[in-house]
Amino acid sequence: MSEITVGSADKRTFTIYVILLLFCAGVVRLLLAEQYSGFISDQGLFVQWMESVRENGLGGAFAVNGSINYPPLFLGMLGLYGDLLHLLGISTQAGAVSFKFILIMIDLVAILLVVRLTAGIANYNWRAFVILLFALNPALMTDSAVWGQVDLLHSILMLLAVIGLTNRPLWSGILFAFALLTKFQAITVLPVMGLWLLLILIREKQYRPLLLWVSGFAGPWILTIIYFGATGSLTKMIRQAYTDAVGFYSSASMNAMNIWFHIIGVDPGTNDTQTIAAGISMRNFGFLLLFAAVIGICLYMYYSREDRTTMLLKASATLCFSFFMLPTEIHERYSIPALVFTLLVIKHDKQWTWSAGLLTLTILMNLVIVLNNDVTAGNGIWMAIVNVLVLIGMFGSLWMGVKRSCKPSVVKEVGER
Question: What is d(CA 45, CA 96) in angstroms, rounded to the nearest whole number?
């Protein structure tokens, strides 16, 4: 794409483009939400939880509703949305726009945030292309407007937290706390964030970023603990939203097209407590593979001399996709954070456009076959193979970054602006 001269006329044109794109993104999502009911089971639970929060308050909802297995942030949003609909006299129904509208609004806010995050791209054509890939991404739209899920919420919070590490550690900590209060899966990027803060502390002798990040992270959690402690539901909330959510499904793969979907000769429906070799269960073997991936990603971060934001985004994208590909008990939707990070990596490295395109394809088809209750080895194995190739490509990109480095990078200019 050719460069565009930056000027007031170009800025006006780009602003009009963003407005039109937001309009199109909203309309397409509304049409999809109206046309397809999606995954009624998930939405039915969300509507039930919404009513529980409206009737009993956020703390009381956990106390009386044992089916709640999401952290409180989205539950609180559902409660406020339910109050608004009740005030307007609108009845909420699973599978209808009346429920999915809150998900569409989250999508549109995420698009606006991506517009802001891409402000550093000088080429307006390329910036417009990156935003377009995010705003009209068929996999992201299917997850929210069709399926009726909210994976983009914690994904965008994870993204903001990682990007904020380099110059806004206080806000990074706050946003990461919000991400964990939205879904436990957000903990995936903790090794990346933790290593970055340690490198700053050890190499640059800067304590302030770490202290600011910890302070920001602690704030929302302290308020959460105080609130749920006062309502007497803290223990139930922690158990239902976090501890009981781990290991609840014991299948090798929960419809995720990863290595456990026939790639290594294991039927995805196999109980992952079965041993695979040397007395090691499938579950523990998956954790070992993920641990090895974390080590490799940490080595990349240690030796990388790439731009700091580029390095953090690549490391996070690879780690999120490793989490989807390597452990057992993974659901099809757990790939959404990896896609979100990859879509932002291409702002810095255009070669990752291939990964973004292939992930969009495999995630979209993975969601579609699950929605159609049509998951079979025959129609899913190609997605698993493509995903393996994408993961290899991601690690290959990290390896090339390490190979170009002769010594550990020096992290510069870190601290809150």
Answer: 14
Q: What is the pLDDT of residues 334-379, one digit of tens each?
A: 999 999 999 999 998 999 999 999 999 999 999 999 999 999 999 9
Determine contact, residues 285/361, Cβ cutoff 8 Å.
no
The 8-class DSSP code of residue 91 comes to P
Instruction: Find the mean pLDDT for residues 275-299.
Output: 93
Mean pLDDT of all residues in the chain?
92
Name every residue whose Cβ is closer than 8 Å to that of residue 119 and which is 6 or more positions away in sequence: none
Are 78 and 50 in contact by the 8 Å Cβ rule? The answer is yes
Domain residue spans of the chain: 246-405
Q: Maximum distance among all alpha carbons in the chain?
A: 67
337, 180 contact by CB (below 8 A): no
Q: Which of 325, 370, 334 is closest to 152 using CA atoms?
A: 334
Q: Give me the residues paired with residue 275 across strands.
A: 281
3-state secondary structure of 280: strand
Model's pTM, two decimal places? 0.93
Sole residue written with tokens 């770490």: 210
Task: Report the C-alpha gap between 140 and 151 in whole angstroms.
Answer: 9
CA angle 285–390–110, rounded 5-degree value: 100
H or E element at residue 217: helix 208-231
Helix, strand, coil shares, percent, the chain, to 5: 70, 0, 25
Instruction: Read off the amino acid at residue 200.
Output: I
The beta-strand segments (E) located in 163-309 are 275-277, 280-281
SS (H, E, C) 324-349: HHCCCCCEHHHHHHHHHHHHHHCCCC
9 burial via Cβ count (<10 Å: 0-12, 13-18, 19+): exposed
Kindly provide the b/e burial profile for residues 338-357, where b requires at least 16 CB atoms within 10 angstroms of the residue's own CB.
bbbbbbbbbbbbeebbebbe
Question: 192, 315 in Cβ contact below 8 A?
Answer: yes
Task: Spell out the alpha helix ranges (H) of 272-415.
Answer: 282-303, 308-325, 336-345, 353-371, 377-403
Paired sense of beta strands 275-277 and 280-281, if any: antiparallel
